[in-house]
Amino acid sequence: MIKNHLKRLLILLILMPAIFLQGCFPQPAASVEPEPIPHEEYEGEMLYTPPVISPPQPGRFTLRYDPGSSLNPITTLTRENIVVSSLLHETLFSLDGNLMPHPVLVSEWSTEDNILFEFELLPNINMSDGGRMTAQDAVYSLRQAMVRGRFVNRLGSILRVESTGDLTFLIELRNSNSRFTHLLDIPVIRSGSSGSNLPPGTGPFRFSYEGAMNLVAFQGHRDYENLPIYIIHLRECADTQLTELFDTGELSLLWDDPHDAFEIRLNRLRETRYFETSIIQFLGFNTRHIALRDADVRRAISELIDRQYIVENIKRPGLTLASPMALSPAFHLYDTQWEYRRFPAQMIAGELLDRAGLYDYNSDMFLEVGDGFGNYTPFTIDFIVNIENSHKVSAAHQIAGTLRRNGLNVVVRELPWDRFIQALNSGNFDMYYGEIQLGADFDLSPLLLAGPLNFGYTANSHFIPFIADFLRAETDSEIRWAAGRLLNEITLNAPFAPILYKRHAIYSPIGAITGANPSQTSVFHNLTDWSINLMMLN
Fold first, then answer.
1. N or C: fewer beta carbons within 10 Å in the chain?
2. What does the DSSP assignment read for 129-173?
């Protein structure tokens, strides 16, 4: 029971730091277990002697860092250390700002059936311990990521991972997935180093010495001569210090989820760069409720959500994408025709509620459930939301107000995080305001099939063939066709109601950085394209 409870605490990404991380949600238990993971400890030594470097000052490029937390890129959940670790550890593939994959450590890959994938790594890639990267390191990293840390969910479809040569390895999936490489922005660490808080990696930077509060460019990196900067200072600070330190130039770059529970409010003029994420906010339903067990009622609720109002007036404009469909409008083959409705949403919702047998029998302005024989049952919908996130609370009240005006008696119950999780685990709710980061292949299985997110018993194996068709489709036309069929089934059955997809942002002083193109994989995506003007950091 304790183990299951802890697993669920990592699932709902509403407030916890894991909300920003990709792949935090475990899939249902696999029928074939991964190969055993070796537990030997890695022992390496640093290549550099400690240089004399003064503390961080304005005019120097400085990042936030938590020296008390791990820099293991597979297991860390600390947001600032994820940023730092992306400079120390490279990934097999990287997603760009539009969630499309690009190879980083992989030179070639091939598949004939989108089940068995063969990969070849770039040769002569140096790691920070002085050795060369091998396929054994990549396989070890993948096996670690399959069973622990922030990538577990996305890798649940892997059946086996094996090295086939010094630089070659294969991955076999349980089911066909033509977009599997979208999931492989997995960092590579040295084989056997999972127990280290700072495992060796292939990134362009490394610590100058153990315990240092600065990074230095790794001279063994293939892009060493093209880096925009050679020393990066680190600064430990609390959330409440971010505004002051950025405004005074003592922090040079901030990564932000603008709709997190903690909202960064900056005074200094800044440049903001947004990038797409696969994080969806949605309404979850409990089908044990007398009204919500009917798909027509759930669908009516989804139709009535004023998503555009939420993204333009409750969320910061431009930082979220209204999503009437379960797929993000940022999906590279998104078709606006999927959203087409012949009649206004309110008319559609009214017809659905009528068809479900809901009617205001007692003239109290709210609908009741009729039994077809003149008897009726009043009901109230208990809508829970986490109180620490003001954006979600405001959105929940806006949705509830709309539903009440259309005859559904909805009451919002604002709960602190621990009680919110407790209510979900115990089924003590009728609707909840949820959030999850999907894989960049937009596999919707976590929201549709049995697993840790099935709080309201909405899982349905009916979706399995539609999901499979969507993931195995290869050509653009095939993908659009399969996506349309899947989305239509979700619309008709309404196991959840999509609300929006989020964007994240990085902030830097005006003129300090050019060429930056951050992504969900790393805010330093394509770092060699950057230019950094230290004089603008004063």
1. N
2. TSSB--HHHHHHHHHHHHHSSTTTGGGTTEEEEEE-SSSEEEEEE
Beta strand ranges found along 60-218 (DSSP E): 62-64, 93-95, 101-103, 106-111, 116-121, 158-163, 168-173, 205-207, 214-217
At 334 the three-state DSSP class reads: coil
Q: What is the pLDDT along the chain (538 residues), one digit of tens a residue?
A: 443 443 443 343 333 333 333 333 333 333 333 333 333 333 444 444 444 445 555 679 999 999 999 999 999 999 999 999 999 999 999 999 899 999 999 999 999 999 999 999 999 999 999 999 999 999 999 999 999 999 998 999 999 999 999 999 999 999 999 999 999 999 999 999 999 999 999 999 999 888 899 999 999 999 999 999 999 999 999 999 999 999 988 999 999 887 776 777 887 789 999 999 999 999 999 999 999 999 999 999 999 999 999 999 998 777 899 999 999 999 999 999 999 888 889 999 999 999 999 999 999 999 999 887 888 999 999 999 999 999 999 999 999 999 999 999 999 999 999 999 999 999 999 999 999 999 999 999 999 999 999 999 999 999 999 999 999 999 999 999 999 999 999 999 999 999 999 999 999 999 999 999 999 999 999 999 999 998 888 6
Q: Give the whole-angstrom CA distance, residue 527 versus residue 228.
A: 7
Q: What percent of the residues of the chain are helix, what percent strand, and what percent coil, each to the nearest 5?
A: 30, 20, 50
Cα–Cα nearest to 359, from 341, 345, 329, 379: 379
Nearest to residue 261, comparing CAs of 386, 389, 434, 384?
Answer: 389
| 10 Cβ contact list (under 8 Å, min separation 6) | 16, 18, 24, 25, 26
The C-alpha angle with vertex 223 and arms to 220 and 227, in degrees rounded to 5, equals 110
Are the C-beta atoms of 353 and 368 separated by less than 8 Å?
Answer: no
pTM over 0.85: yes
Amino acid identity, position 119: F
Among 277, 331, 310, CA closest to 497: 310
Which single residue is written with the structure tokens 């890695």? Answer: 42
H/E run at residue 83: helix 79-88
Among 255, 235, 294, CA closest to 61: 235
- Residue among 120, 96, 127, 90 at smallest CA distance from 106: 120
Alpha-carbon span 337 to 346, nearest angstrom: 19
How far apart CA 451 and CA 290 sit, in angstroms, is: 23
Q: Output phi, psi for 510, to 5 deg.
A: -60, 130
Residue 255 tokens, joined: 């990564």
DSSP secondary structure string for all residues of 445-459:
HHHHSSSTT-TTS--
Q: What single string gives the DSSP state of each residue in 513-524?
A: EES----SS-TT
